[in-house]
Amino acid sequence: MNTCDSKLSLKNRSIETDIFEQCYTYPCDTTNTLWKKSNNTKNVCGSFSISIIEACGPIQIFVNGPFVRSLVPDKQTTLLYTISDLESIHIRCVDENNSGGSCKVNLRLQVNYECC
Question: How far apart are CA 68 and CA 42, in angstroms?
Answer without folding.
Answer: 23
